[in-house]
Queue: 4 jobs
Job 1
Amino acid sequence: MGQELTDRECAELSQQGDHAAYSTLVRRYQDRVFRFLLRMVGSRDEALELTQDVLIKVFQALPGWRPDAEFRTWLFRIASNTATDALRRRNVVEFVALDEDYDVPGDGAGPEAQLAAKQQLIALQAALDRLPPDHRQILLLREVEDMSYSGIGAALGITEGTVKSRLARAREALIDHYRRKNA
Amino acid sequence: MTSSRQPYCPRTEQLSALIDGELAPGTQEQVTSHAATCPLCGAMLRDLTDLHVALQPFAAARVGFDLAPLVEQRLAARRRRQQRGREPRWRLVPSGLAAAGMLTVGVYLGALLAGGAGVAVARPAAMAMFDPVPPGGICVGLQSCYQQR
């Protein structure tokens, strides 16, 4: 049984026109890109459409990808630009609440605890929606995608120092919005 | 509680970097030990940690199906469009010539019908029945003959 290919190997094969290798990358990253875009634009349908757009843009930009750039970081740079463009096009940013069937990880908790967890998530999403897009992006890349400061810096085109300060401001603002919503 | 931040308290970005493990080892120890004794920084550190925990369920969102075939389909459609755009121009020559020929024939026939442009064509006898003056007739119609008188 062959070993699973790394991102770099898949990207290099895709550059040579190997569509199966690119499909592997799509399967590997579709959920990550989707959840990032979902939290950025707030609509499941739009996030799904944008996810496909990102994956197509990535394929088309692959000839310009160099192996010294981490593939994930490079991909999130494209995703981040796509989200920013989508929000700019929309002009007035509207957000929808979390889907009704949003799955809250239950770990065996009772229905009341599940409901409380779901309400907390809805409140958090509402607080997140109130943040400016650059704060939301950086928070999602760090908290949800678990990217390092250098990775976030490369994805957003900013220095690590800026990542550190912007992330702290974004966290403070999110806590503040969340508290005010639940006051 | 009236405690306020002390001048030697680390800034929020130090606490934020602490929970991310992005501080240098020496600074990390300093900030950790300060937060353990300072109620304000300790509370801030707990808030940041709680926020990190609370945001984790956001990672549970899934597409729910395989996007690879859809993406491949859209890429194939783009490739087809691009190929069509790249077709050699000489392939347009036969259809261009045909169009030009049809146009010439159309202009020629139009000129014949109008009788202008100095076109003189021998009229076949069989076509005489379509003339304004029928074969054997004197003029176009009876009324016009009388009016002329």
Job 2
Amino acid sequence: MKLSISTIFLGASMLIAGSSCIKKDNYPGPNASLQGNIFQDGTGSKNTVQTCSGNFSIRLEQLDWSSTPTPQDIPVKYDGTYENSELFAGHYRVSIKGGAFWPVAPQEMDIRMGSTLDFQLTPYLTLSNFTADMVDSTTMSLHFDMQAPIDAGVPTVLEMQPFVNTTSIVGPGASIFDFSDANKKSINKEWADMTAGDKSPTIVIPNLIKGRTFFVRVGVRFNNDDKSYNLSEIIQVDVPK
Amino acid sequence: MTRTNKLFAIIIMGVAIFSSCQKLDIKPPNVLSDDQLFSNEAGIETYLAQVYRKLPIEDFTYRPGGRGSDGGFNLHHEWEHFYHAGGACGEMVGPYGGMDIGGGFAYWPYADIRDVNYFMETLPKYAKNFAGNTVNELIGEAHFLRAYYYFSLAKRYGGVPIIKNVQNYPQQSIEDLQVHRDKEEDLWNFIGDDLDSAWNAMPETNETGRANKYAAAALKSRAMLYAGSIAKFGSVNYVDGDARAQGYVGITADKAAGFFQKAIDAAKLLDGKYSLYRKNANKLTNYTDLFLDVQSPENILTRDYYGGEPERMHSWDATMSPNSGMNYMTGDGLSRCYPTLELVERYNVLDVTNPDGTPRRYDNLSDLWQGSDLEPRLLATIYFPGETLRGKLFDIRRGIYPNFSGTAAAEVAKTTRSFVPSGDHTTTYPGDPSMTIIGNAGMYPSSGSDDNTRTGFYVRKYINYKETDIKKIGLFSSTTHWIELRYAEVLLNRAEADIETGQLDDALVCLNDIRDRAGAPALTLADMTEDVVRNERCKELAFENHYWWDIKRWRIADVLLNNARFHALMPYYIHDEQKYIFLKEPESFQRNYNFDKKFYYEPLPGGELNKNPNLYPNNPNY
């Protein structure tokens, strides 16, 4: 069959007519951002709120379209900061999800390009005076003190354990099992029932490898909803050759 | 155009125009209508066969983490049975990278529940087609099936919407159809009520693969035990949240005793009707055959597998025994899921060390269990090193030590070990061509594949040892039936609820019946504790897809799976002594298993939440 010019015109005009039915997406792209810091209340320090576990995050719920939006979580990084630079501008509810801190009320805010929001959090327990000493060529002894900024209502103290890693990124989910989880100690007491000795414990890590550098911290775990940890600062330990 | 042609054209046009007046609303010939389906028992059987086929039975083919977007139940062409729930929570270690099944697979079977509701509403309209009590019995069976669906939802999500009637769109508005969740307690009570209706109406017997009234009672004993445990233990160990505050998850502790009593009462309905399988005086053989014998007086509800046309076969045999990449014990397939030492030592603690701490020396692998006082049920549930299947030996070695000195504990603690490993079954020990390093069924190095055991053990339950032709043990060649409800479970449900409510005498009778059949020593009244009955349940029902739900409803999963690692019994050969030793040490992959407390409930499926905002609040911490 000979393809006539009119047939071609007809086809082309149908294509054009049909394409006009498609709406152009003229909504703005994800050009907003939110970032901030997690501080330990009163000290301005981020050293002990940093976490390596995936279950401590900033939860965002965009309220512009629905009162029951699908939440999106921004993980808090190990240096105590968080950031999401690909957000849609809008009105959000921002809350803290997880972590061993006294709850803070969710905040509602408009997120635009360059929005920032810092959090001041009070831990259930602070782990202070943390020391790590080699007691012989392969054995390390850790000592620390626990204090409660707020005494009443601390969740059950479940257990404590060291976290040992070969990098300074160390904590739950980033540690060497045989040195860390293997030296876990059960506590399982209410804070009010803990003795002075319980609150000033020593943990021993045997069988370390000679000549290696380790980064060490301790954590105390609670029986709260996500069984999270308060953490000490990090100490670098060089095991002699 | 001639006159004739014009006339002809007009006639054609007329025919064409008037043919459009014919109705296009004709019934498709390949879909059965209600009039056909509900006209006789054969039609009913067709309808119910579809419902039973989709029933969420956690059998051989069940995948607890789902398979991609296919879900996890009754999958087409599913052969990877090593994706077993036990392999994610420490009953076994399997291909999962850890505790990877906590979030479920968005199971939401309301279309299937609608089929049951439709059956209940439609069948009475055709009552004249059925004689006697048939309609009543079939409605009772539908109540059982609906309860089964809701049970599978309740144990995953807590309270979900209870839909008792057929919903229709567009006759009903979207607002009407966007239903709210029901409270968890109400859902469990609804399941109990449905099973009571089933019990009252169903017949004493039914054809194989379909439920009778005792199946309803057995399921009720299971469901009410779950509800009682959730009330008792979930009120102590829980995650807070809106869904809990509003009762969509969680039951108050004061309701526990009532649910436990319902479990006991339901279990007692089977008294004298079913009994434990005791056909063979040899307890080991008897326990093995209990899972293979279709004629077992213990079977309450089974799902059949069969060849022929159409066929329905599974691959349990080809995916639980060592193929070793050379069709060793199986003709095809591979294994990836292995019982842990923790499970084995629930039965018997294995004494493989001398008083001075050095490993005992054995001439043969089989000396570990042959002539020992290990429980027959243990040996019938798990294959040990040195056993035989289809004429092939489970010759399992992790490697060969040139020589060995010192204690087992000191050896396991070493960072570098002196045994010789191998990644294949042909490499022989240097200087000894008569001896392959790991044996035909032995384990690969931890950096290698998990296609052979990681723990020293293999699954024996449901393995069809009677098929001795290895070539016939391939994928989709197993026809062993799955026992969904068996009397031993009912006794365990009853004993556990007894102990939770202080009825120790009754618990003792139930447990000793089970232990006698298992070849285990009898217990006394002083033994009737929560720990004992739980341990008995873990042993008796191992690999039957109970363990995962049990540690969840006991609310101990977050304690047992607290970044846990599981253990193996590793066999080694000491070359200069020509002896075997067994070392208890971490399984070869050393995987971590961690259970987050939020996993006591699965998240409601995201797609459903998007369609129906009234399903909020979602379960806590999601």
Job 3
Amino acid sequence: MTRYVVQRLFMVIPVLLGVTLVTFFAMRVIPGDLAQATLGENATPEAVAAFREEHGLDDPLVVQYLRWVGGLARFDLGDSFRGADQPVLDEVLRRLPVTFELALFALFFSLIISFPAGIISAVKQDSLADYSARIISMFGLAVPSFVMGSLMFTLPAIWWGWIPPIRYTGFTDNPIDNMALFVLPGLALGAGLAGSVTRMIRSQLLEVLRQDYIRTARAKGVAGHLVVYRHAMRNALIPVLTVIGLQVGVLLGGTIIIESIFTLPGLGRLMIESVSLRDYPMVQGIVVFLAFAYVVVNLLVDLTYAWLDPRIRYS
Amino acid sequence: MNLGPHLYSKLLRWDGGIENILPDLTTGLPEQVDETTYTYKLKPDTKFSDGSPLTSEDVKFTYERIAKAENASPHRYKAGPLASVDTPDEQTITFKLSEPFAPFISFSATGWMMILSKKFVDAAGDRFQDVLGSGPYVISARQKGVSTQFKRNPNHHNPERPYPDEMDFRVIPDAATLDAAVIANELDFAASGTDKSRIEAMLAANKDLTDMEHASHHWNMFIMNCRDTNLVFKDKRMRQAMNLLIDRELYQAIVHSTGGRPSGPVTWGFSNYAIPQDDLIQRPGYRPDKDEDIKEAKALMEAAGFPDGVKLQCATVTAAAHATYNAGALALKDQLAQYGVELELGVTDMAGIQAKRAEGNFDCMVYVNGGSQEIDEHIYGPHRTGQARNVNGFSNDAIDALLDKQRITLDDAERKSIIMEVQELLLDEVPTAWLADPIYHSLVNKRLIGYQPWLVFDRSSELYDAWIKA
């Protein structure tokens, strides 16, 4: 097990290197001179030249890339181009809790919706409850999170003159106010995941419930709910967990828009601002950070397989 | 939004529009000793927000810092052709210029000439991150890109201002979220707009809002690349043809449903200098009878070697980045297509369009610009050869000479007549087809009294007299 974890962690290195390559060069392909974008349209040519020199932008791209990757190896994501002495890592770490909390709320809402809905849908197949759960899950899947978020924000304003809180409060300052900030964005972001997980649980459970060992359990007189929870769910969960792990990437991507709609100061919003300002180090830093988080989450998902199914061995 | 003017003071300040200049840090308007010498007197006991004294040395330091060539400030010209700054005592500053400079007094009232603390900058370094000003407010809390909270500056030189004890500026990137926040009375004011249906919907949704209609100092422009490398628009006849083909009334109706006026080289925000509307709307390209314009345009295109029309790379931005640019480009694409002028839209974001402006890498561009308080800033930069804001590479010796002349002409009437002459030449050269001056609407909560909508970069007057009704 330890050997497997270490192997997987080493595999993170080529993945992250690939991410750095793509991010670095993709940013350079976007039209728009970053010195001009940073200094504004009234910037004098002298100021633009000084900026380029200060940030090493006149060096060949390969040199710039190696300099950045060299910094990464020392956990130095570089300095933001916006303002002096603003390490990217500091800003990323400052914004990370917001995005993490949003993703956590989205995950929480998606799971508390999808598990009961998926189980009821499978157990009561072709009933009204099944049809309702399927329609709701299709709705969650079909409506993009940014549409859901926009509606959740603007409709209460139009109907009742009320909007969700827009002043950010840190968890340590006021946990209640802080959590209130994340309820609607969490729902908006989690709705899509809830839809896909509901459908996955339903289809997996339906398949498992038709297995011989389930029939045997029922024949032995095991209570219906125990058959589902103790015997069927555990086997049905492995593909569901895989979907959840893969969907973490979608969740993290979704925060970009949701944070803007709900004015949450997270990494997603920072990413949008940084792209539009051509703040290369900031964008690169955020992407690498998110890629790392994605890889780690999927590693954790892989490790939970063994807990769900003792037959699985890591080597 | 430029928050600097709420934190810093200047020697002078604009009151509301652009009609009156009032003292800010000074006891009155400067004494003009001769054509090139101005003496300002600071109010007694002016202080920075930390209680340290603000003296003539700080003013000298600020002006010399802006004027220093190595600092490459884009606002360097606002300090004028500075020869020397003398500080005979702690309250007196005498600026000596190397030649007359008409905008000197009004530039000392713009938001960019904020007085810095010499001691603070010397200690913090040239690229200081903190704020030490003498304006009506100080920052009490800030979350970068999220919000900035202000509280009253206890050491402000005007003890009667500001009225509010606190202000909270929020950064709300999503337009729908912003509108919802205004409707829900979460904001007392927000950015203004020119979309009539949006304004009406918000007013219908919230009876506590009041609609303030006002002019702007911004042009909507169709910029043409006049560089020699541009085979189409280096020819004046093609620029004139585009100017004639554009239907400004239709453009206005599509892009700014709140209405407005067609614009000349000077916006009607500068009513004192702009060509009067009655006159402007008789000019080619502006007159109501488009048939004559179109006939002339076709003749010009034929003479220029483009009888069947032309394909142009038109730079614009996404609707999300700037709705006006995008809508304007689409409106002109439709209009010009009827005459064989095909605009191929190159859609990018704001940084992309700025790069195109800087590199001159475009045939044409729909753009909104302006925001100046001083006529020189409004007309000099975009049209004088070699200036950073002259993005279409336009160059005309006669216009350059007049633009330089208006700067050194201190007599107002004479200066105005020079600026009129510049406009006449520009309307013939048409480096840009000036399209529209829209009417802007600012939605303000009725509890906010004394708010002045302010569509220039310096927003210090916006809230100077504002207070909240309990």
Job 4
Amino acid sequence: MRSTLLLISLLFSSTSLLATPLGLPEVPVPADNPQTEAKIALGDKLFHDARFSSTGDISCATCHDAKKGFTDSPLSVSQGIGNLEGTRNAPTVINAAYMKTMFWDGREPDLEGQSAGPFVNPVEMGLKDHNPILDIVRTDPEYVEAFKAVFSKHGDAVTMTEVKKAIASFERTIIAGDSPFDHYYFGGDETAMNESEIRGLQVFLGQGRCVSCHTTNQNTAIFTDNRFHNIGIGFARVTNDVTSIVQAYQHSKKQGEDLDVAVLTKGNVSELGRYVVTDKVTELGAFKTPTVRNVEVTGPYMHDGSLETLEDVVNFYNNGGVVDENDPVDPFTSGGIRPLNLDDQQKADLVNFLKALTSPEFAQSAKK
Amino acid sequence: MTSRRNFIKKAGVLAAGSALPLSVVELSHANTEDNFTFAFISDSHIQQIKGNQFVQNWDRGLQRAVAEANLLDPKPDFIMYGGDIAQIGTAAEIDHGLEIMSALRGKTHYVMGEHDYYLDLGEHWSKRLGDQYYSFDHKGVHFVVLNSIVTTEEWTNKWSSGEERMGVMAGLDDPRGSPFMVGDVQRAWLEKDLKAIDDATPIVVFSHSPLQKLFANWNFWTDDAEQIQAILGRFDNVNVFYGHVHQIQYNQIGNIKFHSAMATAWPWPYPNSYAQATNYMPKLTVPMNRADPFFERDATGWQFIDIHSGKADLQYILPDNDDRKLAYNKDTGRPEDTQYQVKQKASQKHY
């Protein structure tokens, strides 16, 4: 076991430039936004600043709380200003740096693009536009100094571009590997996982077919294929009316409705998934494969937070994409989702394996 | 870095052409009220394991095509099924496939495939679906459906059982097989059916096997193709749609444009030609873009077709891949891939 001192240092070292943890590749950093200590610190401050909401009490960290695995666990869908509810479960920021697209539907290509959305979403931070943020960062002495130091810019030259870059830089430091699985699989420590966890890994790689989408590499594992799949969650709510929902959505889109607002305020539009980004019928109800690292601390699960426990998730997949094994499988469900015929021991082992993916810095959260 | 506002603006522009509701392509020279769309689903190969258990992957492919085709807006005027709804042609397979098809909203016409036929010589299929060859008229276009997968009586009757006959015909490269043909009876019927039709009337023919000779070993072949092409030769405007090949093919012979359907079940490759095997495969100009051979729906899908002034534009819907559109090019007078004919996308080479 690791020392408490090390745990604490890991928990609070996110502002420094960390060495890559065991099991993770190097963090991809865009050429136009290199990591610097000062920029990361600035991003950290912006991430936690609740003044960037219409009510003054919601920050990025409200729904991406470090103590809750950078989610708002145990909420199923996020709550923004005035306890307004969105439609989707807060994805963790942990290891988001490795994702090729952002949000459950991948509607933004990178962390920079993602970071500006929630400020102006009516059910998240509720600002009308980004101007209140710019007013603060251009006048608050600490911010003025920091933006000058990081970007050599002040006054009107400070724009959302700099704000987004700083937040993204901070988020690129929130990476976590080094789990018992990493020590067992990549570190060669055969004692790092117990027998049940090792059997669970075999289920994950074999009969459970998890690895088909939660992919691993030779020396690292992000546990996502960065693709979008309709796995049967939520879509049953809209499947009978999908034609009219799609038509209504296309109509309001032509009228200029904001994609961000539409998916978080309209439950039936939310369920269209990746389709609203690509307009491809084959991506109806498809959502991005999330990582399964630290999944023990980020429940509830799925894009709508509709499954409470990891046992529920395993049962859902074991039933072939339905909560109750007698429920009909929706025709839009991906063909890769099929009954797994796992027995109770295999299911328990799989859950234990998933819990072996918890990084040491989140082990404390897991015990709660 | 794309700003989200710009992205939405761009998406809005894109939506006009590529979004559902999917719209019929209207050409300015066309008499637009006669333009229409039909959906085309083919080769589902529904396969029974035992009892009410069927191969799930094939079920899913068909279910998905049906669900997606139901989203077409404006609604297609009708739906064509291109054959091989079953794998070994049992009543259970055909019935199960038709049950999935029954979720389609709209009139459906069916083509006979060899997998539907060779167990009981099409008896159960005909009991459920009626005639094996027929014609109908729709908005000024004359449609003909042929059963192109029959063969000689001698071959048909030489087997000890229907199961044995089906087994031989179901395999590729089986030397005991026999070439498909439309045959004397249907050709005589076809001539009679077309007799009163004016040369200027657009003709659309559906068959399961291509009414052109491509590759004999896999029966990408109809033995009396030349004779049928000759019967169709006098018309200004002929399109032939076929299934069986499980891939996107298009070709033109004389006045006749040929288009294939993708399968909902699995893809076949473009046949390589061995020296020993007869083949007339046209040069491959656009390789199949396989998004991921490990993806269970890779290179399968369905298609819908816009008919305008008798010309056909095909939209191929591929899951987890780029959709493809094949349209009549009025400058060259041929069907062409609208994106890849000029700018080809490299096929994935590492497997």
